[in-house]
Amino acid sequence: MAKNTKKEVVEVTNVENVSVESVKVSPNDIGWTDHVLGLLSDDEKIAGNPTTDGLRRIFEIALDCCVTEARTEVVQTPDPNNEKRATVVHTISYVLKTPESNDENLKYRSVSGAADVYWGNCDKIYRNHPVAVAETRAEGRALRRALKLRKVVAAEEIAKDIDDHPDADSVNKITNNQINFIDTLSSRLNINVTKLLESNNLDTKNIYGLSHDAAVSIIRVLSGYQQNMVSIPDTLIGYSNEWK
């Protein structure tokens, strides 16, 4: 048992008049996270991760509070220019029924969580609904933050089946793995990818329009630079993550 765990002695009247000691866990105790997760039912967890619905159900129970407002703000709407990315902020306002101090103002709390969703971090089955997914993830993060959960991620924040760019042909077009590899290697070598593509007479306006073979050739060039087989031209120096 954690040293700083608060204890409450509850008198239970029975035949032998035995005094029973019950433990009240606070958010600052080491066992708090396990205590909160223990309030969830089995169907409110996915692979051990709490669902947002589950966290919402136990929120007022765990914190002994009353939610006064829960609002969602869409900060960024999906658009072709932002890769159909949605950014959402969810805010929860609540009042503690049992304040942690005598200061009345401290019983009023407000916590926010933000999430952005696009094809690259969302399961492909849901990627056509980025605002809805972002809203759920943002709420889950706000709940986790308010509940002070440690090393816990809501189930909806985990993507397991991410597909390549929706406009890409998985056979003939550049793949998501190739893009990530080019970006990582270029960053390590401090190479400007846009200038590298231009030097090889490749289109820089739509990276997802590049062919699979073109990506292979660029990776081959980068690998040569990495192995010091060819010196990097000064004109290519200066990595920028804005090439994608």
Extract low-pLDDT stretches.
1-22
Fraction of helical residues: 25-40%
* β-strand amount: 15-25%
Instruction: Give the class-level CATH name of the largest domain.
Output: Alpha Beta
Query: At the third CATH level, what is the topology name of the largest domain?
Result: Double Stranded RNA Binding Domain
H and E string:
EEHEEHEEEHHHH
Strand-pairing-aware structural class? alpha+beta
Q: Would you tell me the overall average pLDDT?
A: 85
**Main beta sheet: strand number and arrangement?**
3 strands, antiparallel
**Strand line-up in the sheet with most strands:** 5-6-7
Total DSSP helices: 6
- Backbone shape: elongated
How many independent structural domains? 2
Rg, rounded, reads 26 Å
Distance between the termini: 51 Å
The assigned CATH architecture of the largest domain is: 2-Layer Sandwich
Instruction: Give the number of DSSP strands.
Output: 7
Task: Sum this structure up briefly.
The protein has 244 residues and is an alpha+beta fold.
Characterise this structure.
30% of the residues lie in helices and 20% in strands. It has 244 residues and is an alpha+beta fold. It folds into two domains: 48-157, Double Stranded RNA Binding Domain (2-Layer Sandwich), CATH 3.30.160; 176-243, no CATH class. The strands form three sheets. It has a three-stranded antiparallel β-sheet. The radius of gyration is 26 Å and the shape is elongated.
Relevant terms:
single chain, 244 residues, alpha+beta, Double Stranded RNA Binding Domain, 2 domains, two-stranded antiparallel ribbon, 7 strands, elongated
